[in-house]
Amino acid sequence: MAAADQAKRIYHFGGGTADGDETMKALLGGKGANLGAMARMGLPVPPGFTLATPLCLAYGVSKALPHGLMDDVRKAIGKVEALTGKTFGKGPDPLLVSVRSGAAVSMPGMMDTVLNLGMNPEVSAALGALAGERFAKDSERRFIQMFGNVVDGIEGKNFEAALDAVKHDKGVIEDTALDAAALDDVIARYREVYQAETGRSFPDDPWEQLQRSIEAVFASWGNIRAVTYRRINQIPDDLGTAVNVQAMVYGNLGDDCGTGVGFTRNPSNGAKGFYGEFLPNAQGEDVVAGIRTPIPVKAAQAAAVDLAGLSLEERHPQIHGELMAVATKLEDFYGDVQDLEFTFERDTLYLLQTRTAKRTGHAWLMTQTDLVAEGKITPNQAIARIPATSLAQVLAPSLDTSAASSKPLAQGLNAGPGAATGRIAFTADDAEARAALDIPIILVREDTTPEDIHGMHAAQGILTARGGLTSHAAVVARGMGKPCIVGCSALRIDEANETLTIEDSDLVLGPGDTITIDGTTGAVLLGEQAITTSEVLQVLVDRTLPESESPLAAAFNKVMKWSDDARKLEVRTNADTPNDALVARALGAEGIGLCRSEHMFFETDRILAMRRVILSSKKRHREAALAGIEPFQKEDFKGLFRVMRGKPVTIRTLDPPLHEFLPHSEEDIKALARQGRWSVEQVRSRIAALRESNPMLGHRGCRLGILYPEITRMQARAIASAALEVAAEGVDVQAEIMIPLVGHVRELALQRAEVEAELDELFEKAGRRVNIRIGTMIEIPRAALTAGEIATEAQFFSFGTNDLTQMTLGVSRDDAGTFLPDYVGMGIYTMDPFVSLDQSGVGRLMRIAVREGRKERPALKVGICGEHGGDPSSVGFCHTLGLNYVSCSPYRVPIARLAAAQAALAD
Ligand code: ADP
Ligand code: MG
Ligand code: MG
């Protein structure tokens, strides 16, 4: 491992050595660290150097490069000159460099890079004399465009308009068809654009170009796209980006040169074998930008898309062979699928970048289990790196191909699996605006750019006409876990008129039309289509498919088994019905952490009875009404006990805000009056008396049971008698009764006394007992702060982190939508605290509660049953708190199992 030196600001790579290596991502960014690693491995990396990330953070504060840095940069350039035999800023063999961003966490396309820097008219002339005039001019115009865009913020469309004008004049379609004279024209126009937009002439001093580009890349850490990307992906702001300055190599020297990108395995489905694309006579971003359609690296892939004979494998077998050798070497070195950038100058291959590949949940499962099977990594290494939330994609529904009612409209590349249906949006802004109105959206674009990121986030799925599996749309959609189809070349998109037509079809679609995309197969269909259960669920839950016929389900099961071997936390589920419980058990739940018993009250015939309970002023009437509900509750509980045999089932006593029970419509009020033999007026005045202006802080939770103990009694009776009856069937019943919304130990004491009295009575009568534990939710800050007292009455705690978050932050979870997204956008909270636990605030209360509770009662079982129980980072936090279990919704159970294992492995 290379040593990190505090004062060292510049790290060299190239010529078979490097100051840095792959362990130094925090300091050098992922790109810089891996360039160092590749140089050390002896791979052909153009030489260069990395300016470390602390410089970026310093730049963010002072808006200037530290004193003397440019002197060091000059020395570093000198080293690159020595290694390449070229000279920066002058002929006869000029050195051009790229200035590349690169943070510790990969943020594809979010920050900026300038290519061909060090260019001016004299340099261009020297380069032209050496390597061809057309090539020199092409590099020069690329530089002016990128520099103008990145450093001076000139919108790309200004340059594109100038380029299009020249292409139009010359009657050519592709950039590559412009000759040197035409490019001269482009350059002159570009310089005019620069002058017009900035009021200054284009800087021809290479050192000025270099300094300003370095500053611009550091500044790009703070641009809106990058900030948005970090918010969405929960990346901290204080990492900073490094800057890599690297000698240029040229894929645009002619048709026998090119540039490309590739994955060491298929990032969409995980299939073994290299998957990549390249463009002849091209540079840098041309491949992902979708300007020309890229050509597959592999012959088989090319044949499949009518490009037979054109693949890199067929056209440049030597380069192809070297690339395959490099791919294997890199994958073995990193022990994981790599995503790499390469360029070839005639017979010489260069590697520009490698990083761990982003992939779909499907690909994660397949590649990790394959790598274990190949003996390249251990099971624990495999599970440590699978993003836990990617499992959600594998469980997501996909298009039901057997039922697909219409023939596909068009076929593209399957870039992100899963099916999605929505209305068409042609711009990211429109997608965002309509998605905010709960309209499902499919974002349809020619191709996407980093400016579209908010629209991609808002959309259900993404469809583009251009690009391959490595295009921006594909990479970002996979990262977001969204269904995505790219390269759907039959689409004709008219953004200005908001119409979508399809080659060989008379259909004209607009924003009002619904389409369905199947990212698993690449099919685009008209209208809403039948969607089917995921293959994994078919195997595990429905049992309609044998595991032997689903390699994906087999991989899923392996990963789950490895996770179970590693984790310490138990994973339970939140389930209210036997059916939910069945699904959760099939997905590995080890019990029910939360059954919301009030959900059983909401069915029509039961709610009337419940309303009578609440509106009655006499206990006798309330008991009579409750007696009508009791048999239903008992049956529901029996169902849960049977499904969860041998595993704990935690039932929470009644806990909805009171107003949810009250009738609102005239009709309901009349029905209730009839049923309870009240006058409509009586009902109205009782409702008025019960009205609360703040129901969330009102008469709910145990407060109901305390004023109406017969409700708690009825529930205790239903639970205990269900337990007795199911136990009599020979089932091991592990029932737990949980009292909600306790803030004071006396509340719990009162409720517990009611429950125990009821249980004793019942068991006495039955002549048998079952063991039923009694515990409480910790969801009011006061409960957390007095957990020691509360533990004297509780056999277990379960953190209700939805309410605990609401009450600790003073943010209503029902109204949070009005300002919380802005708060998150502004970084006040870095993540939505209702999604990911606020560890420093709410987490602190939890820590206190665990410590004080266990001090009083060392065997106290503690779990969590809020939404956070299925959020990986919150699960990790629960592990470090030493909780016994997390409980989450059924489909999150696998995610929690994996996240719990990752937390245990991180210890
Ligand atoms: P990003 O992080 O957006 O991928 P990069 O810094 O990797 O940006 O560069 C953008 C493109 O330019 C990539 O295709 C990369 O391979 C290419 N590139 C960067 N530096 C050089 C160089 N020195 N020579 C040739 N191509 C380069
Ligand atoms: Mg790159
Ligand atoms: Mg609650």
Fold topology:
Layout: E1 10-14, E2 17-18, H1 25-40, E3 48-51, H2 53-62, H3 69-84, E4 87-88, E5 94-95, E6 97-103, E7 113-117, H4 121-131, H5 133-152, H6 156-170, H7 180-198, H8 206-220, H9 224-232, E8 241-247, E9 258-265, E10 272-280, H10 286-289, E11 295-296, H11 299-304, H12 312-315, H13 317-334, E12 338-345, E13 348-356, H14 361-373, H15 379-385, H16 390-395, E14 398-399, E15 410-411, E16 413-416, E17 419-425, H17 428-435, E18 441-445, H18 453-458, E19 461-464, H19 472-480, E20 484-486, E21 491-494, E22 499-502, E23 508-509, E24 514-518, E25 523-526, E26 531-532, H20 535-542, H21 551-566, E27 570-574, H22 578-586, E28 592-596, H23 604-615, H24 619-643, E29 648-652, H25 666-676, H26 680-690, H27 702-707, H28 709-728, E30 734-739, H29 745-766, E31 772-778, H30 781-785, H31 787-791, E32 796-799, H32 801-809, H33 820-825, H34 842-856, E33 861-864, H35 872-881, E34 885-888, H36 893-906
Parallel strand pairs: 4-5, 17-18, 18-19, 19-20, 27-28, 27-34, 28-29, 29-30, 30-31, 31-32, 32-33, 33-34
Antiparallel strand pairs: 1-2, 1-3, 3-8, 6-7, 6-8, 9-10, 9-12, 10-11, 12-13, 14-26, 15-25, 16-20, 17-24, 21-22, 22-23, 24-25
Bound molecules: adenosine-5'-diphosphate and magnesium ion (MG) (2 copies).
Residues 740, 779, 800, 802-803 line the site of one magnesium ion.
Main attributes?
907 residues; 36 helices; elongated; 17% strand; binds adenosine-5'-diphosphate; binds magnesium ion; alpha/beta; 8-stranded parallel β-barrel
Summarize the structure.
This protein has 907 residues and is α/β, with parallel strands linked by helices. The model has no long low-confidence stretch (mean pLDDT 92). One magnesium ion binds at residues 740, 779, 800, 802-803.
